[in-house]
Amino acid sequence: MVETDNQNHLSKNERCPNNYNKRNLDHLLSFGERWSRDPVQHMKDLLSYFENIVTSKNRKKIYLYMLDYQASTPQCIVAALDIPEQSVYRELKHFIKTGVLEYAVKPRHTRKSTGSTPGIISFPDCDKSYVQEAIKRDRIRKSPKSKLVLRLTQLILDEYFSNNEVKEISYTNIVGFVKNECKGFAYKEILSFTDEISENLHLQEIKIWR
Fold first, then answer.
1. Domain final position from 94, 113, 137
2. What's residue 73's pLDDT?
3. Residue 92 confidence (pLDDT) above 70
4. Alpha-carbon Rg of the chain, whole angstroms?
5. Which domain holds residue 200?
6. What pLDDT does residue 205 have?
7. Is the pLDDT of residue 100 over 70?
8. Residue ending a domain, choose from 120, 137, 154
9. What pLDDT shows up at residue 1?
10. Which of 179, 173, 204, 206 has its CA nearest to residue 193?
11. Dihedral over alpha carbons 185, 186, 189, 190 (to 10 degrees)
12. How high is the mean pLDDT of the chain?
């Protein structure tokens, strides 16, 4: 019975070291001489890596979120995953300590009138384009009308992109959609909403025709 249980778990020798980071994962996923010929061992290595760095539900959610976006502010993670801010910072601190993530842009404190800059968390050697997208997402999040814009963005995604086939929409169509949903708003506000919605859609690789 003991032997059967052992067969269902990875041995200590099969486990990846706790200090594995993003580069180690790239190493495991790379094709060529580094890629082992044994597919079962591939899977064991990858599962061991994931098991060692992801030891809680929140940590798993944050890691998967970072795989999608590559870079983010802590506040955007809080908003997107609905995890308490304290928990997000605790898990990010763990990832940074183990070398899985790092600060692409370090946080800095400014005057009270302007608040503080939280910094951008990313994978090591993250492309600068992902950092720029993270800054844009945080700017959208901090906007007073961000919740309304995000809600409108989701409605457009449900209306036009539910089949996951079409990846483009005209700016005029967005304006018309917003006008219909936001009756009573000034045309200037409608255009402002449309610009932010277009930015959100662009981040999801949807082409906006003007």
1. 137
2. 94
3. yes
4. 21
5. 146-209
6. 82
7. yes
8. 137
9. 43
10. 179
11. 70
12. 78
pLDDT of residue 37: 67
Residues 165 and 203 placed together within one structural domain of the fold: yes
Which residues sit opposite 168 in a β-bridge? 207
Q: How does residue 78 score in pLDDT terms, banded at 50, 70 and 90?
A: very high
Give the span between the Cα atoms of 118 and 123, in whole angstroms.
16
| Residue among 172, 157, 148 at smallest CA distance from 203 | 157
Closest CA to 79 of 103, 62, 91, 63: 62
Two tokens at 115? Answer: 């608040």
DSSP state of 182: S
Query: What's the half-sphere exposure (Cβ side, CA atoms, 13 Å) at 72?
Result: 23
Please tell me whether the overall predicted TM-score, pTM, comes out greater than 0.85 for this model: no
Same domain, 154 and 203: yes
41 within domain boundaries:
yes
Question: Is residue 40 scored above 70 in pLDDT?
Answer: yes
Asked if residue 58 belongs to a domain, the reply is: no
Kindly state the tokens that stand for 189: 């506000």
- CA distances 179 to 33, 193, 205, Å, are 57, 10, 24
Residues 89 and 131 both lie in one domain: yes
Give Cα 126 distance to the centre of its chain. 13
User: Is residue 29 in some structural domain?
Assistant: yes
Query: What is the spatial distance between Cα 115 and Cα 3, in angstroms, rounded to a whole number?
Result: 59
Residue 76 located in a structural domain: yes
In CATH, what number is assigned to the domain containing residue 117? 1.10.10.10
d(CA 72, CA 123): 10
